[in-house]
Fold this sequence. Notes:
Elements: H1 15-28, E1 31-32, H2 33-36, H3 42-47, E2 53-55, H4 81-92, E3 96-101, H5 112-124, E4 130-134, H6 142-151, E5 155-157, H7 164-170, H8 176-188, E6 193-200, H9 206-218, E7 223-228
Parallel strand pairs: 2-3, 3-4, 4-5, 5-6, 6-7
Antiparallel strand pairs: 1-2
Amino acid sequence: MQRLPEYLKRPIIDTERTKTVRHILKEKCLNTVCEGARCPNKSECYAKNTATFLIMGNVCTRNCRYCNISSAKPEPLNINEPAHVAEAVKALGLNYAVITSVTRDDLPDGGAEHFANCISEIRKTGNNTKIEILTPDFRGKYESLDIIIKSCPDVFNHNIEASEKLFKTARPQGNYKLSLNVLSYIKENSKIITKSGLMVGLGEGLSEIEKTLYDLKNAGVDIITGTIRENQSRK
Length: 235
């Protein structure tokens, strides 16, 4: 049997080093994308007293093929969650907090106000914590994006995830051009730093990667991150 490459291996979790984060998350009834998406780097981040908060529940109204978060009918929003997120950020002493969410197409604003409330509560702590939000597309509603702009996060992140050719396969309920428009709208109507992420290894060619990067540049994106996914069907 062929052995797995070293980069796929993770050490046994040191529960003593991760207990602070686990305790705070449990106490505040908070979800993380680390848990929901089954991130292999979870223990490394927890050991450094950090995590990416996942707001608005732990089930999604969409069913992206690359994501481990379950698709189901979500529960009503927890109105206390923004305050709990802020308390966790303060307890962990975070200088930089990242907040993402499941997609909530069931909500009229897609959860934009809930994001804004989280930002507001963190600001109230007075810790000068930088805040990055990683959002869904809010179905491209400008009213929702205006709520986000007014809340003034330090970084607005919306991941494009896949090239245009593979977009509908990876994100069947999303829209490539709509996602680009979301990023463009934030950049054109604010001074917020914009960010997006792209997965490679789904079967796209080099020219498709280049086109996606070009499209993101034209949308005014300031920061682009990349993730490599191993595709067994590729040679």
